[in-house]
Amino acid sequence: MRVDLFDFNLPPESIALRPASPRDSARLLLVAGEAPFGDRIVRDLPGLLRAGDVLVFNDTRVIPAQLEGMRGQAKIGATLHKRLGLRQWQAFLRNAKRVRDGDRIDFGAGVAALAGPRDEDGGVTLSFEGEEPVEVLLERAGRMPLPPYIASKRPTDERDRSDYQTMFAREDGAVAAPTAALHFTPELMVALEAAGVKTETLTLHVGAGTFLPVKADDTDDHRMHAEWGRIDQATADRLNAARKAGGRLIAVGTTSLRLLESAVGEDGIVRPFADETRIFITPGYRFRAVDGLMTNFHLPRSTLFMLVSALMGWERMQAVYAHAIAEGYRFYSYGDSSLLLP
Fold first, then answer.
1. 248 and 311 share a domain?
2. How many distinct structural domains can be found in the chain?
3. Which of 11, 50, 216, 320 has the fewest CB atoms within 10 Å around its CB?
C-alpha cells in the first residue's frame, strides 16, 4: 500500500508533553465496531470490558539509554536500541559521520565505549569499557530516551524517570515505553479485578526503531527493526484457556499485540516464544491472537498507525483520528488512549 494513505494533519498543540495526573484520568476513546464513538476516561475501563476478558501487558522496563559524549572535539549523541552481548549494544548515533570504526567515545561519569562497524539497520556497535554492567553505567551517565517529538520541545528531566515507566516495568531492556500501559494505576487494577477482568504479562523490549519514520513510498519496501520478546509456556497456556472459555484477549499496547501475533499459529493457539520479531502489520493482515487493543494515538505515516488501520479498517481509523483531533484528545506517548474493539 502507498505510505501516503496513512498521512494526516496533526496540530502541534495536540502533542502531549506531560502525562495526565493521575494516570487513569486520561481520556479514552471507545471504538467498538461500527457503533458511535464513546468519549470516556481510562478509569471507565472496567465497565467497558467483560468478565473473563484478559488484558495483556508488556513488563519491559525502560533503561536510560540516551548518552551524550565526545569523540575528540566532536559532540556525539547515542541512543542504545539493541543488546548484542554483555558489554555490546547497537546504537543510533547523532553526528555519526564523525565516528569511525575503532574510535573511542567518552560519555563522561567514567563511561566510554569503542565504536564498531555499522549494521544493516543503520546503527553502530558500541563496546563499553570496564567491568560494570552496562545498565549500571547507564544509570550513572544516561538519560531517559524520550521520543523526538517530546525531546525537541523540552529537555528531559528527573520527573521523566518515573513518568516514562509503567507500573508493570520489571525486565530491563527497552529504550521506549509501552505507552498504553502508562495509564494504569494500582486503584484501576483493583477495579478491573473486581469486574472479573484478568491480566497477563509478557516481555517485548521496545527498540528505538519504533520512532523511525517510514522512508519508503510503499509499505512493501519498508523493513522493520528487530525487537526481542518472550512469552513463557505458563502464560501461553493461560491465554489459550481464557480464550477457549470465551474471554477476549485485549492487548495493552501495540508491543503486546505484535508479540502475541508473532507467537500465534495458524490455528489461533498462542505458543511459547523467545526470539526476535520483525512483524509488520498492515491492512489485509489476518489477526489470530488478539480480539482488541488499547493504544495511544500514533504518528502520521507510522507503522503503528498502519497497525491500527489493519485492526479496525483504514476508513474507520481515518474517522477515529479526525474525531480525536476535533475533540482535543492528546496524542503520542504521554497522550490519551483508545480502546479498539473490532
1. yes
2. 2
3. 11
- Give every strand in the sheet of 273-277, ordered side by side: 38-41, 27-32, 337-341, 292-296, 249-252, 54-58, 198-204, 227-231, 273-277
Q: Quick check: is 250 in a domain?
A: yes
Q: Specify the pLDDT at position 34.
A: 95
Beta carbons of 173 and 83 less than 8 angstroms apart: yes
Q: Are residues 223 and 134 in the same domain?
A: no
Is pLDDT at 133 greater than 90 in this prediction? no
Return the closest-CA partner of residue 180 out of 249, 256, 259: 256
- Same domain? 41 vs 177: yes
Contact indicator for 253, 294 with CB cutoff of 8 Å: yes
Residue 302 belongs to what domain range?
3-62+163-341
Average pLDDT over residues 310-314: 98
The 8-class DSSP code of residue 25 comes to G
Is 153 part of a structural domain of the chain? no
Residues 6+ apart with CB under 8 A from 125: 84, 88, 89, 90, 91, 115, 116, 117, 119
Same domain, 280 and 329: yes
Q: Which residues contact 272 (CB under 8 A, 6 or more apart)?
A: 231, 232, 233, 236, 263
- Regarding whether 281 and 180 lie in a shared domain, the answer is yes
Mean pLDDT of the chain: 95
Q: Is residue 138 part of a domain?
A: yes
Judge if 82 and 222 occupy the same domain.
Answer: no
pTM attached to this predicted model:
0.94
Write the DSSP string, 283-301: TT----S-SEEEEEPPPTT
Indicate the angle between helix axes 314-326 and 303-312, nearest 10 degrees. Answer: 110
- Given this model, what pLDDT does residue 238 score? 98
For residue 247, give the nearest of 46, 42, 49 by alpha carbon.
49
pLDDT of residue 106: 98
Same domain? For 208 and 278 the reply is yes
